């Protein structure tokens, strides 16, 4: 499954933008470029349909239909029911609202499990439940391997109600075995919340197959607008107290959305499905729905593994930096963080002189960095890319690192 890089990059207007010519984009973990179908749909909505949707006149009916299309197509690609997918202003906001609902579901003395491999958006809202008398247990990463070890989890699950963990850490990069972890939790009678923000840009997961009760990710990192997407399985959603207007609590996809959604951005999110289907068809795969999403996932991941291998080999050979996470490309996402002997943010600024866009800092991952003995104030240099990156850009990055480290 060799990626047609020229075709892929033609689907992203950023690559034809004069001001971005020659720049290699290595901060995709902070937000990807938007694909053309998303931009086109957003533009059309603002031009033709920027009014209250679902009213009985053509423009409003078209607006509502496009919002429904986004939900139904993306839910199918995620392997869940349409009503199980909701939109919110961000994953951080969705996580906060969900935590408020869970707080009403739990009782003082109940226990939840969180990890220290998490981005703070997923970790912080759960840890704050301790203020309501909830016992918060920590699943700690191994400081040598940087991994969450499955054999240390069962004792933490004993008597717990909820497990919150990442599909992939935004600094460690390791892809956790979500299906196995969720199965372990399910056997113990524990519900699961999975932060998929750092994994979903590398191919939408089959959430139904993973078995998570909740799965969250961000559209602006999956080539779309600035929205947070949350899958909450119907059986769990029905147990939690609603957080919306009382008259919306009977509709699952509205139940955990306190305010009205951004109509235009929800509608534009259908462009993500457009792109994934076109990507699959271009690479001899199914043209529509969940099969297209699965094929697109595999094509994207194969390309990323191919690009990631030489970068990991280069970084692993240097003794003046510390590579976080697995050194094997197949085991991780192409979100690569390195700890340096100097503060990371100025290094990222120096890379810009070589037309390399990268990030330096803590990336809201202060807990995992602290667990690995890294001062969050010093931070890490993060080099993150996706399937639309080219081998030439990897070479450009390595040359810049050679010049500045």
From TrEMBL:
Keyword Transferase: yes
InterPro entries according to UniProt: Aminotrans_V_dom (IPR000192), PyrdxlP-dep_Trfase (IPR015424), PyrdxlP-dep_Trfase_major (IPR015421), PyrdxlP-dep_Trfase_small (IPR015422)
Keyword Transferase: yes
GO MF annotation, one: transaminase activity
One Pfam family, short name: Aminotran_5
Keyword terms of this UniProt record: Aminotransferase, Pyridoxal phosphate, Transferase
Span of domain Aminotransferase class V: 25-233
Name by which UniProt lists this protein: Aminotransferase class V-fold PLP-dependent enzyme
Species of provenance: Pseudoroseicyclus tamaricis
